[in-house]
Amino acid sequence: MYTLADIVTGTGGQVDPVYPGAAHLVLREVVIDSRKAGPGSLFVALPGQVVDGHQFIADALGHGAQAVLARTDWEPAAPLGAEIAVVRVADTLRALQALATWWRSRFPALKVVGITGSIGKTSTKEYTAAVLATCYKVLRSEGNLNSETGLPLSVLHLRAEHEVAVFELGGGAWMGELTALAAIAQPQVGVITNVSHSHLASMGTLENLAQHKAELVRALPPTGVAVLNYDDELVRGMAAQSPARVVTYGLDPAANIWADEIESSGLNGVRCTLHHNGEALHLHLPLLGVHSVHTALRAAAAGEAVGMNWKDLVIGLQTGEAQQLRLLVARGLNETTLIDDSYNANPASTLAALNLLLELPHPRVAVLGDMLELGLYEEEGHIKVARRAVEVVDRLVVVGPLGRLMGEEALRCGMTPARVFFALTNAQAIEYLRRVLAPGSFVLVKGSHGMHMEEIVEGLRVPV
After folding, report:
1. Which of 109, 247, 262, 356 has its CA 20 to 30 A from that of 463?
2. Which residues, 6 or more positions from 50, have their beta carbon under 8 angstroms from its beta carbon?
3. Which CATH superfamily hosts domain 2-90?
4. Are the beta carbons of 67 and 7 closer than 8 angstroms?
5. pLDDT-derived band of residue 326, with 50, 70 and 90 as boundaries?
6. Distance (Å, rounded) from C-alpha 135 to C-alpha 259?
7. pLDDT digits (tens, 9 = 90+) for 199-209
8. What is the homologous superfamily of the domain 107-322 according to CATH?
């Protein structure tokens, strides 16, 4: 809960005397989407590339918002009402970030884990939070709230009962972005998943991207812990850049925490042996695919850094995210099984998903959409995925203009036209799949977040 005084203190703004709000106004949430406003909410009118949030202030108030954070030069088209509070600032985005930074500083005992990297941020965040939740009261950032606007909203969900927070830090648009996000979240533990071809369009080279991701480990305090992927040379090289203690993880025995004897059981999870300080721990993880062992290693390293003992970690790793498989696997129409990996995609993560599909029985179907923000790697990345798909799937459905690259490459590699379908839209893909899916098919759905391929999953899912 925030008081109006909290908002003023955190943002450095001033209450408009014409709209001072009701006496003793208490706010329960901060929103930037007018449709999500309700009684007790503060609506922050952010500038946008296409539209300005100030145009939606009336809509937010119509949904019940009781306070507004607005620019000093904004004037309402009509009177707002005597009980509405308006806090005016020079820059609403900077004010939102300042508010979140100030709010975070009110929880000095809080332990924060910050997670970034090219692939696996969200799955690592979810699994790490679930493991930690077996011992602590944990706040995790919701969905993709990891950007310069999303992270502040995540931080503003902090409450006194939280002992640990796990925040995903996005970035990739400009150098210094992760430095700014770390200043808001103030993590003591920083986890780097990997450096791959995501965001090459803005960063240009993998080396530039690595320097960008290293901003997180450079921002850690000397008393903190940097958790680095030993198997990724670019991540391993970040060790010298952090003032914090470094813990490495991977499949190489040279890492501080490593795993071997990895065996996937398809949709029944993964077995492996985890090694730490000379001890071998045999685990059955509720995760999908051999590649997900890295996710477990990150969670283990972060859990130890926060203060969990290994007895609790072993329990948490095996039971902390019992819902993980059910979140990713759904029952589809015509007795099919949907593997929902629609949240995001780049070549490395899509190849890993295809490798999981290879472990499952026929018929296998891949529904693949554009992989965005790959820069100069765009054509090569899509072609690599297409060639692997030819080796794995019985039927390939591609969506979008870059998806067409994959479909055309699959045809060049010998897939018959009857097994490749080019969809212009998600709706077209759904209509086709409803007609052709054979009973018992395993259907992988994957594409970049901007492709909204979760629509395909919903279009094929059997209602619960």
Report:
1. 356
2. none
3. MurE/MurF, N-terminal domain (3.40.1390.10)
4. yes
5. very low
6. 23
7. 556 666 888 88
8. Mur-like, catalytic domain (3.40.1190.10)
